[in-house]
Amino acid sequence: IGLFSARGKRFNRVRIEKIRGWQGYSSMNELFLSEAMIARAFWTELRSSSRANEAAIDVDTVVIPHSQLVAKSFPTQTGSISRASAELIWLMARYFEPKRIAEVGTFIGRSTLALYQGAKHSLEMLNTCDYSYDTWRAPAGDATSKIRYFAKTPSQTMFQTLVAEGHKTDLFLL
To answer: Three-class SS of residue 52?
Structure first.
């Protein structure tokens, strides 16, 4: 698979080689897939995953309590993600099984907890920061030891700290 430019658009180039031993197949045309086509196929597959029900149950434990907090303390819902977005983040984290995650924009922690719950089987550390707000409250249990919160910290500072400490990151959520 290689990237190239065709008429100003970026495409992923996929070459399907002939299978040796099959008679009558001397050549095949190349198949061109745009990044949008690949992304659409990936997210559609993720949404219909066998893990979708598990994601919905886990996300309910995050969204329902946070909905009351958002409505009471943050009526404009600045920075908060939807339930559907939380499910997709959970599914993405479960699919990629990252050991180390870096997230920018914690706010009240919906995406942070969706990442944590989706990746909890593989996760070693989730580093997250929020420059504008300090509203994150870690839940009790295992999450406390696996989530490092940089309160009132610019993302640049968090990344500089992680680099200085020699951290490697598998997944970024920006």
So the answer is: helix
